[in-house]
Here is the input.
Amino acid sequence: MDFKNVNTGELIDFYKKIDEFLKYLEKEKQGIEKNNSSNE
Amino acid sequence: MSIKTEEILEKISASKEILSTMPKNNPKNVEIFKAKLEELEKEYATYQDQVSNELKKRYEKAVKKTENKEIENLKTRIKTITYILELLNEEKTSYEKMGLDRSIFTISRYYKENFESVNEQIQICLDKFSKVGIVVSLDDFNYSIYVKDYMKTFFQELKKGNIHSDKIKEKFEEIYWKCPEIMIHIELNMRNIYFKNESIIDKYFEKEKNEKLKKANITLAEINKSYIDLKKQLMEKMTIEPRLIQEKFLSGECNIHNLESDKLKTDIAKILPKDIAETIEENEEIKGNIINFLNSLQEYQNYLKFKFIIDDIKQFYEEKENYKKVYLETKKEIETLEKKLNKLNKKANKKGLFGIKKIANGQTQETKELIQTIKEKYKELDMNKFYNKIYTDINEDSTIYDILNLANSYYVYLTTCFIDHFKNIKPEEINEKVNELDEFLNNPSNAMIKHTSFIEENDLALIIADKYKLLHFTIDKQDLDAKHLGALITKLENIQMAIYIRKANLKIEDIKELCEIKKLLDIN
Here is the structure.
């Protein structure tokens, strides 16, 4: 990815949003696994 | 944002939308959902890695690492002058100049220290004697049979370069149960070695002082001026050194959020009228006044912190006639007592040396009591030396600085004063306080304490408030009350920092970003 035209403040925000999304994905995954184990 | 990053952010929203509509009603759908989650996780972890690498690259580029050579040179020059000033210090005797007061004080408070640090201080004492040309050997340790026995092992292990050896620990264990006062005996013996060699040590310092003065070819007044000038230069350089400013924020010592525009404006509005506050950006005079105002407040705060020392010394000053001869009298008493001890020790060993057989026999009650008396006399001597200094060196023209400087030259008095004032103070905290006082007295910005008599002690809060009111600050004497002073200083420190950041060609916004990157990526 080319970040030439992205200033540092925006890049920090971008990092935080990706991080937030990854945490969201992780939470969804945990939800599925929790459901699976309770169905078993 | 670039097109690519914008696209990714839009993709995140879309992915969330897709995920929320995906069915999870049977195992097959759950597996499809899980696979999608993993696919997205992999994709965005890659993006995150790329962003993280770019942020790290920018962080490394922005953080200043090169040391300022000018600052290092100034520090070296100040160190040299400090050594000369120490030699020229008329308040200290050779005992304090050697630093024996500190080491012996630590040994005397062995019950507050650990065994290792007491042994280290014994070694430091030996080194200090050696530095002034006195080679101390086992023959000098004659205070008691136990000292001789302990020091014999100590010297043997010192020769091997291991004063923390098991052999020393075992020797201490063995002696301690026979003589729990062993460390006191060592302390007194060290003091005795100093007195026996006092005139040689005095001559060493006199010679060293003359040589340094001749080499530097300047007077004491010139050295003092030079010291203050160099300190000022150092402080000026350090306050606007980009690397040091960044470090303060990255280490957490300062909080960049205190310098946010709105907060700064509120702080400025509290100390300056609106018309002046609005011109602060381009008004160099008012910026200078803010820094001077802060210096005065910090000086006043430090004065309040150490006022109890001034009050204590005042009491002794009022009855200073009583302390005219106390030092010499106590010194003579100790000499007489030590002669008596020497005779008792010789009597206990006809050969004049301590043999193994005699060690096993222990020491007489008379010797024990005599050593206890000498110990008390040495304690008295330390304090009488200081009180005698009040008699000889303090007069009605003495300033607050003179008084605190005298206290700062006498470690035993100073630490005793701290122990009395701050109940339950720990040994390491005592040294912190000693260093704080030293730092305060060596601050080149001090103005009031060097010009205010310790007897009159004018209303310093009112003097400061009046001065800065004249310079347009909205300030009252009440703002300098103990409970408000800290908050006022914090406001001014924030404003001062914003001024220094600008002078250093840095930007508050950039520092804020660096702090954020450091926190996000957990950079050490």
Notes: Chain B touches chain A at residues 1-2, 4-5, 8-9, 12, 15-16, 19, 24, 30, 33-34, 37-38, 40-41, 44-45, 47-48, 50-52, 54-55, 58, 509-510, 513, 516-517, 520 (CB under 8 Å). The CA atoms of residues 110 and 122 of chain B lie 11 Å apart. DSSP finds 25 helices and no strands in chain B.
